[in-house]
Here is the input.
Amino acid sequence: MTCFVAVAQERNLGRAADRLGLTQPAVTKTLNELESVAAARLLDRGRHGAQLTAAGEQFLRHALGVTEAMAAAATALAGAGEPTTATVRLGALPTVAGVLLPGAVARLHERHPGVGVQVRTGSNTVLLEALRAGELDLVLGRMAEPATMRGVSFELLYAESLALVVRPGHPLTPGGGPVSLPAVLAYPVVVATAGTVPRHHTEVLLQRHGLHLPAGCVETLEVSVARAIVRHTDAVWFTAERAPQVDLDDGLLVRLDVPAPGTAEPVGVFRRSVDEPSVVIDALLATLRTLAGE
Here is the structure.
């Protein structure tokens, strides 16, 4: 099972072998034996790596529980009599990570000061794959397509629309009134990368007005990069409205009066459906719900 989990998480037999300190033929032999016992094909193996089959997806949920329980038991025995520490592994979209996580982590440490926190950012698809593979405990992201939701549950925290943000003193801000999209496109723009929800909403918003993204856009999911560009240039940032909230509150950025109807998108927390209750995870979830409400 340890071998199977390693291959499922690495998605490559060679990397799994290196991680386990085994040869690749030994990994292949072990997987063959496991599939023989399970009487089902669990992995499709080929030149492009190893992909879980439908049976493999289902088996992984149980294998993770077994291997994690064994690892916890071994750790407890190795450190008998010593206090144990927990680590929460969180995944978050870059545009979501800075919204709730700082406050949630601070409140978690007030109640559980010994708990460690690991944060990984990435796209929804990558983070959900890591969650299903047992590499993450929770993911803060956007509602995904049903095909990518196998084995995970989603709880809505809030919904947010698209916002257009610039630096104070930008040429588009003096009047303080509505700004037209053609006027916006006269300036450089910063947008999310292709295939993301904010990028889709940006393109749909422009298409409704017969417009398209101009050449020379800066495309990034990194909030720190986008905010630095916008704060020091005349660029306009098309972004999820809560991503720049701290800078908006501090007066370092300004939101343009550009209506963006129909761009609201649900944001929430994903977790594996079969995970056992955890005091720390439940406390973190309660904090996220509170902060979202606030």
Notes: The two ends are 43 Å apart (CA to CA). The mean pLDDT is 88.
